[in-house]
Amino acid sequence: MCGIVGILSLDGLKPIDSTLLSAMNQAQFHRGPDEGDQYVDAFIGLGHRRLAIIDLAQGQQPMQDASGRFTLIFNGEIYNFPALRAELIELGHQFHSHCDTEVILRGHMQWGDACIERLQGMFAYALWDKQDKRLVLARDRLGIKPLFYMQQQGYLFFASELKSLTLVPGFDKTLNPHAIEQFFCLGYVAESDCIYSVVQKMPPAHFLTINLNDPTIALVPQRYWQLSYATQQTGLTDQDYQQQLTTELTKAVQSHLVTEVPLGSFLSGGVDSSAVVALIAGMSDEPVRTCSIGFDVAAYDESDYANQIAKQYQTNHQSRIVTSNDFSLIPELAHIYDEPYADSSALATYRVCELAREKVTVSMSGDGADELLAGYRRYKLLMNEQKVREKIPKLLRTAIFKPLGRWFPKLDWAPRVFRAKTTFQSLAMDLVEGYLHGVSLLKQAQRDALFSDEFKQQLAGYNTLQLFRDIEQQFDGKDPLSLLQYIDINTWLVGDILTKVDRASMANSLEVRVPFLDHKFVEWSTTVPVAQKIRNGEGKFVLKKAMEDKLPLDILYRPKMGFRVPLADWFRGPLKQQVRDLLLGAPLSSSGLFNMQTVEQWINEHQRGVSDHSTALWTLLMFRNFVSKDSALTQ
Rounded distance, CA 37 to CA 618, Å? Predict the structure, then answer.
């Protein structure tokens, strides 16, 4: 795993600042502490930081072919590189290394841009063709690896992390209004937007080509892969689907095991990471290295379940207990994530990556299974809502549920069954709008109360629903669950889950691999009928049934927990005064973005115990820390 940076002179007249390139590269040192180098010619500068995983002796980058025509910098892993390497040797290529980097280099030499479609793995890379004065930037299908780019003052700049681009002299820090709206709705800035107006993210499954011989350079990424739900398997038994899953997941896990450095796996005690550990154990002659973190509050702690799996498979297990008041990382999140990012489980993810790096350089993760196989509780709830929508005409639903949603009290303190306000509001909407409403951190009414009139004018009517509508238009399936999964894969998965894992792991110089997101497994999952994903209220049905001979039933069928942080308690207890001071002072009060009376009202209501505004307060705190990187929360 690595970090890449680059500077391209678009007119070929402006020189490459090698000192700036070096500084941009050094800003990503944590992504590759083992080695670093750069390449500079009259048109381009390419920088690389290396976390050595495969072919430790000969995999240095930037990598060139013997003629010096092609130069490559690459972040990621290509899992089918042995097969591609063999194919290229048959075609006459002579390799000077045993790493996947040279496979990409020679693959482009042989197949051109079509090489991208042959790659199976996670990647972001830049390939410079000196002869044709042509640059290719590419990102993997699911967006596992990040890539930011911007055009400024006659140059194209790109990097694995945003912090490198902010070093460019004259960097325009104007914030993107759409990105701010997305952040307060979703808790992250969605692809391909960036918090800074001048920067874009390369969308997953896209590549960008810039030919300096073309006088009309347009930075328009091209899609090379499209996830399809159009074809569904039929006529198979439950056992057939379970066998397919075992076969496809085993192939994915096995391909992800190639490494020359210590490899392990996260083990939370949940279904997904436990399944990965079980499969690795069946392929390895040595004990699997596993790690987990627990919490000192029983309601958040899954360590007993992790220990159960570790004992069953005799793994080399290490665990650590994290205190429920472990908020010392909060000031660091703005630096780690570069953009506003409000998933509080980032704190726990950082800690488990920190623990893993003590013993391994590569760790497997179970991320992606919930999105592909409908593991989230919200899928079941929204499918129940959809049944109501399908039975009651829209006009009648609006007449009944819109008033109920408006006037039903927000009972944060009540048992979940009595918290019907969000459900009533959602039922008055169609599927996609209702889904956005359900997953929003701050609902539309909350954002309306929070945003200032001045900022609403900047938004000019935009809200995050437009993003979801655009994705809905790309969907080619028929059933509502698949549509929600497709939206999640294009928003939540890449913007939240994969961003969280990439930044937290790379901040600890740890590579994390996600076999559930092998694109072959992803393509198989879209052909699986809904009844194999959710049955009788049980999500990930086919995965759980397939794993029954490998995992205990109390692991497979217990309620999903996930990483949780006691924000409500923090903001009424140890962080009570800090959160008040930070949210009511500059820079939020002077930004012109917010109605500060709303912010103060939320703080007061939360701290009096009248309402639970912890999610809104945390989101504001993360935004505040972003706009003022020198802010700090201390114990």
Answer: 39
